[in-house]
Specification:
By secondary structure, this protein is of the alpha+beta class. It has helices spanning 21-49, 165-172, 177-180, 184-202; strands at 4-9, 64-68, 76-81, 86-87, 107-113, 116-121, 123-127, 133-138, 148-154, 157-162. It folds into two domains: 4-84 and 165-202, no CATH class; 86-162, no CATH class. The longest helix is centred in the first third of the chain and has 29 residues, at 21-49.
């Protein structure tokens, strides 16, 4: 399983001249605030590429979250995006029908790319054992054409998936830079926040 990672660390912070007690506390707080702000911006960038429900990328979901927070003596943060493909059911407004019923016309509508809806024939939403929803499609035996990593769950029956969070972040970045390096905007925010925290500590 791969995962998108955005790293914010002390060696990327050239504006700190002296690491006394107040500076350490200010830097720790500033790094964590920068990480939370960057996580929010990354979630927005991902949703511009893929139509994830907002709740799907909330911090509590652990699909795009601050995995490692800075602390004194360990001045780095890690923002991680989930690398597991997303159930295609997440991208449909339709739900599972009672009694295993089928949707009208045997079709399910999905919106993976914001503003672009398509219909999948011979498909239906089903409730899975873990109480999540899955989008299944029947075929004549072969894996559904052009499907992303379809998973067989029965005879001629496949669960369908869409992009993972890290794929959405990759699409939103330039040459993958969003994963490893601070952007100038992040660095500017970190410097401003560090100075603000230092002023609060020093009165």
């Amino acid at each position: 399983m791969s995962a998108a990672v955005i790293v914010v660390e002390f060696n990327q912070v050239p504006f700190i001249k002296e690491m006394n007690n107040s500076a350490e506390i200010a830097l720790t707080r500033a790094l964590n605030r920068t990480a939370e702000r960057s996580r929010t911006r990354a979630a927005r960038a991902a949703r511009e590429q893929v139509a994830f429900p907002a709740s799907y990328l909330s911090p509590s979901s652990k699909r795009l979250w601050v995995k490692t927070k800075a602390k004194r003596g360990a001045f780095n943060t890690v923002i991680e995006g989930r690398g597991v493909p997303t159930s295609l059911a997440r991208f449909s407004r339709q739900g599972a029908l009672a009694g295993g019923g089928r949707h009208r016309g045997g079709k399910v509508n999905v919106t993976v790319k914001p503003g672009q809806t398509r219909s999948i024939s011979r498909a239906f939403i089903m409730r899975l054992r873990n109480n999540n929803l899955g989008l299944a499609v029947r075929t004549d035996g072969e894996a559904p054409a052009r499907a992303y990593k379809p998973k067989p769950i029965g005879k001629n029956l496949w669960l369908l998936y869409g992009p993972s969070v890290d794929q959405a972040l990759a699409a939103a970045s330039n040459d993958g830079g969003i994963f490893e390096d601070m952007t100038p905007e992040m660095l500017n925010f970190l410097e401003t926040e560090f100075n603000r925290q230092l002023e609060l500590l020093n009165g």
